[in-house]
Amino acid sequence: MLCQNCKKNHATYYYEETINGKKRSMALCSVCAKKLNPEGEHPLDSLFSSAFESFDPFGGQLYSSLFGKSAPTVTADKKCPLCGAQYRDLAKSGKAGCPKCYEIFEEELAGTLRSIHGNPTHIGRTPKRLRAQSQKRAELEALKKDLQAAIAAEEFEKAASLRDRIRTLESGK
Amino acid sequence: MYWYQKKGNEKDVVVSTRVRLARNLADYPFEGRLTPAKAEEIIRKVTSLFEKEAGYEIRNMADLSHLQALSLCERHYISPEFAEKSTPRALITQNERDTALMVCEEDHLRIQCIKNGLAIEDAYVGATEIDDLLDEHLEYAYDEKLGYLTHCPTNLGTAMRVSVMMFLPAITMAGQIEPLKLQLQKIGLAVRGLYGEGSDASGCLYQISNQVTLGITEEGTLKKVREIVSQIAEQERRLRQSVQGAAFYKLIDRASRAEGVFRHARLLSSEEFLKLYADLRLGLSLEENGHLTYEMLDSLLFEAMPATVSIGTKSEEGTQDLPEEYKRDLARARTVAAALA
Lengths: 173, 341
Prior knowledge:
The complex is a heterodimer. Chain A has helices at about 30-35, 45-50, 60-65, 85-95, 100-105, 105-115, 130-150, 155-170; strands spanning about 15-20, 20-30, 45. Chain A is mainly α.
């Protein structure tokens, strides 16, 4: 989207002001945004944040404070091969175009996902086809942790047996 | 038998429990980028899995009237969005297990199990049965880090929503709903009015549900909701028990009057119905009422809704020319009176 003020640069900010009860909102480039709001603080949110407000389950309070002040770096022409969506489509709707979008726009979405969920990794159910694999990975991680602990405690016999089990598990990949 | 006609636990404070799982197929775009042909393809793939399974009913939503779709929504089998959509979509239900599967909703698959009263584990087990069946044959969109991939990024992870519909008149009257909302928000739970997001809480009915889906297991979520619901239930019961003297008689008088109106009214609007429902339901928990049960009242809560009431009753002789609203209010009054007779 082009800046609605200069109509030259790409808009990366969403500007909203209320004067005498009249609300005005526009998409601006960083130059115009700075001009209109020299302190560059409260009313400026990234375009993505404004797009997210429409489905905000937290009543509009979270996004304004959590979303970064600037829009994430966007590779303009990057397209999702499965659904054809571009990052700006995701930003506009606040929703992914298809499952593949999460992989294609991983970098662009990182900040948004962090704002919604914090920084955790999924620890719930796994589809059947991946269940064995994920169990194996969890087991390997636990064994590696035990191995470190055994080495630290100088329990070398235990460490050797743990290492053997790790090797067996890894070779079965 | 519909889910709300069965017996439930902790009915004095809980109307129903629902567990919803969102799932998507790996190779298809989400709603909005999904062509009708592709949507039909998904519907065919999914419905074929249930055709030979016992007890499942498959409905092509295009075969239903708008009123029938709204009635399914009022009885909590489908979401309002699903009822209103015009794109290809299907509904698969299993009445014995109280499960429903919306195909091509916002996500390709929305699995839900809804139980009468408090039944968090049972509802989860019911939903996972459908999940396992689908998982066996379809390739789900899934990412190791993000979990089940969903159209809306707020559902990523377990993509599970557990919601318990609670009846909280005492907490409402004590002005404690807003503080409760704020308190729950801090721990990742939400409180919403009866008809989901963006609606006013009416009939003192609220949905308590989890907001966090990533970085927590399904079991962890169930436990969290269960613990909070039992704390809220305890608070509600304590407040009800503390009502004594004049206030107590005022409340049971209100309940008796509500019953009188339910038995004898000729016109009953949905607003009046909800108000009287709350009065009568609260009265049931304060004083024994030999001829009424929570299940009876809650069945009415779903069957006296506008679309369901319109479908369920034939219009009376001589009322054909009345405005729709009057016909509905007449039909509602008749439905309610008949249920209590």
